[in-house]
Amino acid sequence: MIKEKYYRIGKYQKSHPFRISRSDDSHTKEGSLRIHDYYQPTPRRTRRESFRIETKVDLPHFPGKENVEFYLDMEMKVKQLFVCYHVSKERKIPLTSLRFQNNAMYWWTSLGRERHHHKEPPITYWNDLWGALRRRHIHSYYDRELMDKIQRLQQKNMSVEEYRRKIELYIMRETIREEENAIISRFLSGLSLEIRNKVELFSDKDLNILVQLCIKVGQTNLKKGSSCKESSYSNFYTRKSIKENTKGRMLFKR
Fold first, then answer.
1. CA 200 to CA 100: how far, in whole Å?
2. Do 76 and 168 form a contact (C-beta atoms < 8 A)?
3. C-alpha 113: how far from chain center
4. Distance CA 21, CA 91 (A)
5. How far is Cα 37 from Cα 254, in angstroms, rounded to an integer?
6. Residue 163 burial (10 A CB sphere; 0-12, 13-18, 19+)
7. Which residues contact 245 (CB under 8 A, 6 or more apart)?
8. Distance between terminal CA atoms of the chain?
9. What's the CA angle centered on 15, arms 13 and 21, to 5 degrees?
10. In sequence order, which residues have a C-beta less than 8 Å from that of residue 65 and are 6 or more positions away?
């Protein structure tokens, strides 16, 4: 019986060979559908366009005064604002030219006309505008005058901090860069004699420490001066009281 059963199955497979394959195909199709049902494709990465928000920069007005110190202060302020707000190169010239007033505005328009007359391109780079402004407001012998001011600078009635601030401002505006030792020697040469005689003994190469030391010496000198004045006043009044007492005694004896 078993042999007849296997014989019938083999005979059926030979006579109908495609039925089993169709059933297999149906199983594979169902399996593929089930896989696609559960499979979720990864989402595509969308590029986010980076929109750069331009910040509003409020530059100071520049009237174009014929004053070198005023121009240098203005230039320093404008550069600090450009660095702080990360102003692009394309915006520097429009922002600066819009703040021109009076003489500066007239100079800017005449400069544009001259360049157009000579068939030169307009100024589009910040370095070119900066150079043109410096040629207009800073004369050629300014560096020599500044060197003379630094060499002749004396503390006199200024405090140590004010004197240090002034000498640093002159050195910052000077085109020639000096080493730390040269700045310290300039600082010491202009100090008052009372402070310089006590500070020169300390061979310190740091300007900040030297300034702090000079401030302490100046404070001690002020305290000594005030105490000497108080002692002189007290001695004066004691002598005066002694004289008055002696006079009173002499009159009483008479």
1. 49
2. no
3. 35
4. 75
5. 135
6. buried
7. none
8. 174
9. 50
10. 71, 103
Separation between Cα atoms, residue 35 and residue 242, nearest integer Å: 120
Residues in the chain: 254
**Residue 156: which residues within 8 A CB-CB, separation 6 or more?**
192
Contact between 214 and 195 under an 8 Å Cβ cutoff? The reply is yes
pLDDT, tens digit only, all 254 positions of the chain: 555 555 555 555 555 554 444 444 444 444 444 545 555 566 665 555 444 555 788 899 999 888 888 999 999 999 999 999 999 988 999 999 999 999 999 999 999 999 999 999 999 999 999 999 999 999 888 888 888 888 899 998 898 899 989 988 888 887 667 788 888 888 888 998 888 888 877 766 788 888 888 888 888 877 765 554 445 545 544 555 555 655 555 554 55
Here the tokens at position 198 are 């006590």
Retrieve residue 78's tokens. Answer: 């404008």
The amino acid that residue 224 corresponds to is K
In which residue are the tokens 């328009």 written?
109
Residue 74 to residues 71, 79, 105, 138: CA-CA distances in angstroms?
A: 5, 9, 16, 13
